[in-house]
């Protein structure tokens, strides 16, 4: 394998031999050291070497001919980004803190522009329950035949995500906390955010855009600083002696492919298993995201609709 890695010019047959040698070496390496490894040898750089080095040689040429810029680019694409995206807890915390800062800033700007703060206008209250009774409520809702997948998913992630949100704010006690779930809310920019099983006899779960600071959110791929998510639940969380929290439970989109971020000048996305409560004030706008025809879990952000 070492001799093959030193080649300056590769034929396709050389690359096939090289991949075979890598696989054989990797299998032996894992057998030898798996018991000594807490992660069972699940290392990002090791994974990248096995599965990406041959394709990289096809695209960029011999390893020994790479420039510093090429190494930096490849490291970011195949090691840094996948490693960080695999650390979901870190991403979630980083996203939530960034969004919270944004929500606070937008709230203060609005209050400075208007002496009387503009209130969010909720409509179509769907459910109300005590947080202490949430588990019972969600269990009962499993029998509700009117619920579709998005709301079922939201109920399944509700307690975990709210716990994470409370942890971020150092809220220790949630005694006497009440939850209200709504079908829609009118944002301060007059757009209407929806998360309902029935609106004009059809389900409607709004997709949203949130502007991020790339310098702060370097662990998450974004569309020039914009991240996208699908709304699962619209909630008002009421704690004694605190202002109500206006929160949306969302599921995040990420780019479908690290190589092809845009198709027809539109971001090509997939839904990922990352969920958070975010403050509604931080939402930049409602966006139109459509499934890609005849494919599974591929979506376009429609940037041509106004």
Description of the structure:
- The chain has 306 residues and is of the alpha+beta class.
- The protein has two domains: 2-85, no CATH class; 88-301, SH3 type barrels, CATH 2.30.30.
- Helices cover 38% and strands 28% of the residues.
- The protein is built from seven helices and twelve strands.
- Strands 1, 2, 3, 4, 5, 6, 7, 8, 9, 10, 11 and 12 form a twelve-stranded antiparallel β-sheet that branches.
- α2 (12-33) runs antiparallel to α3 (44-60), α3 packs antiparallel against α4 (68-86) and α6 packs antiparallel against α7.
- The longest helix is centred in the N-terminal third of the chain and has 26 residues, at 88-113.
- Mean pLDDT is 78; it is low at 80-89 and 111-117.
SSE arrangement, N to C: HHHHHEHHEEEEEEEEEEE
CATH topology description of the largest domain: SH3 type barrels
Which geometry do the CA atoms define?
elongated
Strand residue percentage: 25-35%
- The stretches of 5 or more residues where confidence is low (pLDDT under 50) are 80-89, 111-117
Q: Rg to the nearest angstrom?
A: 24 Å
Please describe the biggest sheet, giving its number of strands, its sense, and whether it closes into a barrel: 12 strands, antiparallel
Q: For the terminal residues, how far apart are their CA atoms?
A: 55 Å
Helix share, percent: 25-40%
Question: Mean pLDDT score, rounded?
Answer: 78
Tell me how many strands there are.
Answer: 12
CATH architecture of the largest domain: Roll
Category from helices, strands and their pairing:
alpha+beta
How many domains comprise the coordinates?
2
CATH class of the largest domain: Mainly Beta
């Amino acid at each position: 394998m070492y001799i093959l890695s030193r080649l300056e010019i590769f034929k396709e047959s050389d690359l096939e031999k090289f991949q075979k040698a890598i696989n054989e070496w990797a299998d032996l390496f894992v057998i030898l050291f798996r018991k000594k490894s807490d992660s069972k040898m699940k290392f990002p750089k090791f994974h990248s070497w096995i599965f990406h080095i041959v394709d990289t040689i096809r695209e960029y040429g011999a390893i020994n001919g790479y420039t510093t810029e090429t190494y930096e680019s490849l490291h970011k694409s195949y090691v840094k980004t996948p490693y960080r995206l695999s650390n979901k807890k870190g991403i979630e915390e980083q996203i939530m803190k960034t969004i919270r800062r944004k929500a606070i800033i937008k709230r203060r700007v609005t209050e400075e522009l208007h002496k009387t703060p503009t209130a969010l206008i909720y409509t179509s209250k769907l459910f109300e329950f005590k947080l202490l009774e949430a588990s019972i409520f969600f269990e009962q809702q499993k029998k509700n035949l009117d619920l579709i997948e998005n709301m079922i998913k939201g109920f399944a992630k509700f307690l975990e995500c709210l716990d994470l949100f409370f942890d971020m704010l150092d809220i220790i006690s949630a005694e006497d906390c009440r939850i209200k779930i709504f079908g829609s809310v009118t944002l301060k920019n007059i757009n209407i955010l929806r998360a309902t099983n029935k609106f004009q006899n059809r389900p409607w779960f709004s997709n949203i855009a949130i502007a991020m600071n790339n310098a702060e959110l370097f662990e998450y791929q974004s569309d020039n600083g914009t991240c996208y998510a699908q709304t699962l639940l619209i909630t008002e969380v009421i704690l004694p002696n605190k202002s109500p929290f206006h929160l949306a439970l969302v599921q995040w989109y990420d780019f479908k492919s690290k190589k092809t971020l845009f198709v027809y000048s539109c971001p090509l996305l997939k839904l990922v298993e990352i969920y958070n409560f975010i403050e509604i004030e931080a939402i930049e706008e409602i966006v139109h995201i459509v499934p890609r025809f005849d494919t599974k879990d591929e979506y376009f952000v429609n940037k041509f609709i106004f």
